[in-house]
Write a structure and sequence with these properties.
Blueprint: E1 5-7, H1 12-20, E2 25-27, H2 36-39, H3 48-70, E3 77-85, E4 94-95, H4 101-111, E5 115-125, E6 133-142, H5 148-156, E7 179-181, H6 184-188, H7 192-201
Length: about 210
Amino acid sequence: MYSFVYLASQSPRRQELLKQIGVHFEMLPPQVGEDVESIEISLPHEKAPAYVERVTLAKSAAALERWKKSGLPWAPILCADTTVSLPNHPDGEILGKPSDVADATRILGMLSGKTHEVFTGVALTITPEESPVFLLQVSEVQFAVLSESQINTYIASGEPFGKAGAYGIQGGGSAFIPSIKGSYSGIMGLPLYETAQLLKRAQINCI
């Protein structure tokens, strides 16, 4: 039985969610010089489920190499990745983090009045010798029709940046969402039910 896990993410939302279910964790974030952004670039014609699995497992492999160089004691490593998808959209079905104001405006305009999917992959490396255990959680999010003023005001708040799909359901973006189908915590970035099942397989205490 392990007393904690390493969280290979800098996301404050994932940290909050792990605390919510009583999981003790230590940070194992990307180091200066690690090329995380290139991992997150989607491949031509790549579908969202395949993208999330590829990126999550790549982050998991990078985290394992980081641990090997660290001299730290072993504990299971938890990684996750989230993306927003508009299936079969002509402008591409993977909506990542906006690069600037114009990109955030474009993404929010695409989501306006539509139902999109949120894919979150979770990988847990239980021992250094084993391949990580991976799971994928999918939710549907309905967006209201947004006015130009709403989009501009929301972007001015700064919340869209650093978030897949240019919004945060746990923040001001919740005002645009009439309904969801799936996992609220998964849309935030870490589906707690599924994550708890993985952690129990590794004999890690949680609620």
